[in-house]
């Protein structure tokens, strides 16, 4: 226990003394600032009439300009009053993720336990690149990864890491697939020798509904976005295994499939690719099987939805986010790998961080499991949320969001002004406003309805484009339910606001002008 603290608060040019957060003086200052921050959140919630203030982009830009004023962030008059002004502006203009009309993104409000853990993690500022930089944090992540591996049906040989987001988790999964498959084919360590000069064309297969991060990862890995082969999907965005087999059969001799990527929870429909069939195909062709479950992971906690994950344990790697359907602050993304030996391309020995003799004595770091060196203790906030909710609580919250989506779909079906695209699978609902004869460009009109709701601060909806049976790609609106406290009355009020906004936009001259919404 610390008995003496030798640190001295630094004094600014204005005489204000700033201490480091972990010192006695710093903790006192922190307590005052935390109270101010919570007061700012409470005040913003009391003043807000929707999930966002009205005014749109111009008002948000003006709010930042008013905060910074002359002198910029390196102000000549620093101090707690300026920090409190920052808190007030930030809270006032933050999207309120607890508001029932905030249904635009896969972005959940966190549990109080996770938020408190995030604060403590920031105060103590542990890192995972060397043992002494965060001993408990490091061992906590190891234990959490082991438990998560058990969730998905992996055995004791599994490993993994926390990452800054699902896109990075997918990137890392494909990095491991590249090095494993091509290393086995060539006998080389691809992470050392690289790909230059090889007479092969690596290929990654994913569905037409897969996340854009798959193609972007291929570009980052030196394979090129053109290395991604899009497999046709059915009307709900699920990969068709027979089409994947057909494409594989048509590859030229120099085309080498290195990964088959399945999606478990597409961003629009929440659809799951047929995991058992795709796992069997990947095993037959000796292709790395990666599952992107960034959104769909919530189904794993639900007794009702868990069967959607049949076949998951056969994946070579799995990416998922608990900042989407897990009520932890971003970033809380995870990559799991069925065989820890296949994480060897990430291995790194640095004499000043993880020297071999230290490692031999148990002072082991996590430097060799990540693309990052300095890395936050994100497992801490995840552990806090899990310990606060438990498996049953997580399952109840997932089921509540699923029920909300089903109710919203039924309500949309009954409304003559709205059209449902399909029944929800997880917690997303895709629909559109019916335009009628007065609207020449239905896509532009639906996009304008969404912006109108945002500008007024009444509702935050997502948008997407869907190719309909007539072959035309049209803008649709999307609701993403991640707040288990939302009621059926909240949903009715939200959809009433959508219908009212559609009527208001219909009267606008812009709504009658043919345009193209992308």
UniProtKB/TrEMBL annotation:
Keyword Lyase attributed: yes
- Here the segments flagged for biased composition (Polar residues) are 1-14
Keyword set, alphabetical order: Decarboxylase, Lyase, Pyridoxal phosphate
Molecular function in Gene Ontology: aromatic-L-amino-acid decarboxylase activity; pyridoxal phosphate binding
What GO biological process terms does the UniProt entry carry, in alphabetical order? carboxylic acid metabolic process
- Write down the Pfam families for this protein, in alphabetical order: Pyridoxal_deC
At the top level of its lineage, which domain of life is listed?
Answer: Bacteria
Disordered: annotated segments: 1-22
Look up the record and name the cofactor or cofactors this protein needs.
Answer: pyridoxal 5'-phosphate
GO CC terms: cytoplasm
- N6-(pyridoxal phosphate)lysine is found on 324
The similarity comment for this entry is: Belongs to the group II decarboxylase family.
Q: What is this protein called?
A: Pyridoxal-dependent decarboxylase
